[in-house]
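Onboarding guide, step 5: your first structure request.
Type a short instruction followed by the sequence, for example:

Predict the 3D structure of this protein.
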Amino acid sequence: MKSLKHILLFSLALVLNCFVLADKKPVKVFILAGQSNMEGKGRVDPLLNHQITAPETKDFFAHFHKDGKYIKRDDVWINYLERRGKLTVGYGSPGRIGLELEFGHVMGNHFEEPVLLIKTAWGGKSIARDFRPPSSGLQSKEKIDEFVENMVKRDYNNLIRNEWNRAKKDNPKITRKEIEAKSAASIDVIRKAKGGEYRKEVIDSYGHFYRLMMSEIKTTLSELKTRFPDYDERGYDIAGFVWFQGWNDMYNGFQDEYAVNMKNLIHDVRKDLAKPDLPFAIGLMGQNGFAPAKGNMAIVKAAQASMNDVPEFAGNVRAIPTDVYWDKRADAAFPTWRDNVAEWEKLGSDFPYHYLGSTITFTKIGRALGQVILELRVGK
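The system replies with structure tokens like these:
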């Protein structure tokens, strides 16, 4: 009888547990992807540590800390490559914050269920090559040949430079041309010896970081309980994707194919994640600051903005400007920062291509992109 009683109690517990889990909403998952500005470049110390108490900024950052300590949100988790845990400061580049901090606060404040941010960002990466989506295929043979030849010339130049540096120890006035005239180094020899290897390396590099991104997303989702012990098996819902990238596509002619690659990336991410209408928020390049974007930056920005005009993306993709969040005080201080380091460290922490390392700017961008995702979800 005792045995039967235990079985009945166990069965009842299982049924009740199923009802509890059924009543729980799945974890809302948001993916943040891009290059160095998605990594995040707003320094915590001394910049943010100063701003949370400075009279002119303390109210703006009040929700990041309490009782002298930065808040760790129990309801918002983050996985950023090898780092993971409850959302708090420090999930940008080492010792820095990015847009993830405010984005996570926006989502955590909106949803009753737990929120997970999966951040996949690597600096110095293009969409034309590194994040190239599968449906874009390879670039032309001529473009691949160009990259291979650049690698061959790199090797040749390194050999000549090394020979030149050694020769200058005995003859400081010797020229590079003289070294090349008597050197055994040859572009043709290097091309013959290394050309095939370099061609494979170039071809393999196309889409390498797209594949890493998808692998990181899927591995994180398959290891939720291991990576986040508080996860209670309630399931998950991939609820939005944020893209913040563009700098490296201003080079090598990549800017001219940005629109095609961006459109293909949206299609391929949705296909690979089995989410055909996944809300997509795109942060336009904004490193032009208060000045109008020019040259290739203007081309990339226009390509990013053109996603707003793709009929099939209406209501589920939106690209927004980020230069409108440029930090006025950091911008004014930057030209003379080397002469006023102590003052500069209270305002900014990096160069213009990283939005001056402004914690204010990264926070505002995170808030804006979070609001975009929420607005797109309303239309689902």
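Each response can be followed by summary notes, for example: The radius of gyration is 25 Å.
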